[in-house]
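Troubleshooting: if your tokenizer reports a length mismatch, compare your output against this known-good record of 233 residues.
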Amino acid sequence: MAKISLFVGGIRPLPESGRPTGIYKQPVTAPLDLGREGFVGDQQADRRVHGGPEKAVHLYPASHYPRLAARFPDAAAHLVPGSLGENISVADLDENDVRIGDIWQLGSARLQVCQPRNPCWKIDERFATDGMAAFIAEHRLTGWYWRVLQAGRVAPDDQLQLAEPATTAPTLAEAMQLWQSHRPPLADLERLATTPGIAEHWRQKIEQRARWLRDNSGSAPPPTTFHVKPEQA
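Known-good structure output:
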């Protein structure tokens, strides 16, 4: 079990570009309804890459913040739970403790681990710190997304409880390490794509990478990337 802190937020402009973002979250002090696309009162600005049924709830491990603060000391005072846009913060879980397809109980809702977060350029602007999103991606300090299998009500002091462990699936840490490997074994990559419970979009990206590696055995593979800042209009 893991006790949670809960955060939601609306859409605000970023300080430099003025682009809209949902990264600014506030602590929740009362129970909230959780539906298939997230918590009531929570918003995402760019629905192409955030939100939706397979990115309904984002959890970020609180244990990552000291590492980020040590690497980016100028932003350390602002690197606190909730500041990376997560809905749930926990002190007792990280990517080594959950498996793709795990089903967890939270309040009266049931959640399934389905993919890691893909860090976004907006993290750098939110903290006025170049390279933070790339560091999070490189060191796999991403947290993860849940899909909501059963809608319900969640209180800020509820605890996550593992209801149905995906005992044969890789941990999220193992899956990300394989995904980011320079030239991972094709059989392992293909097996990852078939993991029950994996998010459809991530499955497609894994399959695309496996096809590229199969068809280009003598070439350097393209890197896995995070969401880069779009060109200004």
